[in-house]
Q: What sequence folds into this?
């Protein structure tokens, strides 16, 4: 979790039971159900191992999954 | 110079990294912290990043530009606490012909703004603090916690 | 910094002259003496100008850019003997939004190239010496006399 | 005369009898008739008192008239 998303969820890292997240879409649904998570978009930018993925991507154990708020660099 | 840095950005170092006797044109761009945003007076701001991904993407943007045009590119984005007037991002592009330098320089800053996982938290003189969000209609969301992140 | 100068051009001085806390974007352009031209190896070159007219025109170009876009512009063209790698012309443009800075910077270099009464005499490592003429098909005319002028 | 034109004519300043130059066009014709002058274009850039003028411009005594080769700055 980065920037505003970490702020909303009150944490920059989350432990998620692997049973809830067959796809990234499932993971988003789970995170949006956590306290503070409902403000996240239905389809946030998500990166797995530094590469952006779609909602149907199926993460493996040990993957680094990052929720990225809209980018604001430059 | 690293593509991400917590030290002040030195434009001359970027220019030196790209210039050569064959290249007669150098275009550069500096993004500088402004004193206002959305009608409010900026006091300071903080850039954070998903650093390994931002490093990889900025290097990829540089390579793409060098593949699309006959140019050499150097770019650096600053992270951490910045004050008004500080350089947040700098790009230097050298080429044999000026059109390539201009076009590639513009490409790099547009790609940085749209693709780099970097976030900006601004504090105003009225005490307010926001996450800047170029995609939202208001341009920003209030900061909830005082704790910084990532 | 003067618009025409016989001293090395200092880009940072031009940037300082245009930047301000309201302007978040700075675009610059450097024209640098290349080591080759028309397939020949450049050893050195000399820029001469109709100085009062070139001064007036460069100031006019700067004012025009500042009238056409919401920008501040500084520009300087070097005269005299230059070596490969020396900066011949430098432009710095600051604006609130980056599009203005890029477009105005491009405008200024194009106008300098087409409107400034400045001439370039190049000497090659084969001993040849030419007046550069961007409007001629060959790009240059041989120098007849060894005497410099104006 | 500047740059290549001074080179062609062997001088960067010319004295011209005022009788030959009612217009800039006349002056160009006169200069093209001088030794080395035939290589000049029929319609070179000419500036009077720092401002570019057309061939029908009528200069006055004391005007500073400059013949400008194609510009090569930048």
A:
């Amino acid at each position: 979790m980065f920037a505003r998303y970490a702020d909303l969820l009150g944490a920059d890292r989350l432990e998620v039971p692997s049973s809830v997240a067959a796809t990234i879409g499932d993971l988003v649904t789970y995170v949006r159900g956590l306290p503070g998570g409902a403000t996240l978009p239905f389809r946030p930018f998500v990166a797995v191992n530094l590469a952006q993925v779609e909602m149907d991507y199926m993460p493996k154990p040990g993957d680094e999954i990052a929720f990225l708020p809209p980018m604001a660099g430059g | 110079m690293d593509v991400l840095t917590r030290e002040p950005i030195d434009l001359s170092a970027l220019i030196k990294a790209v210039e050569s006797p064959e290249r007669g044109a150098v275009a550069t761009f500096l993004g500088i912290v402004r004193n206002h945003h959305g009608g409010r007076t900026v006091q300071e701001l903080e850039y954070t990043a998903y650093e390994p991904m931002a490093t990889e993407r900025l290097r990829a943007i540089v390579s793409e530009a060098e593949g699309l045009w006959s140019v050499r590119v150097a770019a650096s984005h600053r992270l951490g606490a910045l004050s008004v007037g500080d350089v947040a991002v700098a790009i230097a592009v050298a080429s044999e012909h000026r059109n390539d330098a201009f076009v590639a320089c513009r490409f790099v800053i547009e790609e940085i703004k749209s693709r780099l996982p970097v976030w900006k938290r601004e504090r105003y003189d009225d005490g307010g603090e926001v996450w800047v969000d170029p995609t939202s209609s208001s341009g920003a969301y209030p900061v909830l916690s005082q704790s910084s992140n990532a």
In short: The mean pLDDT of chain D is 92.
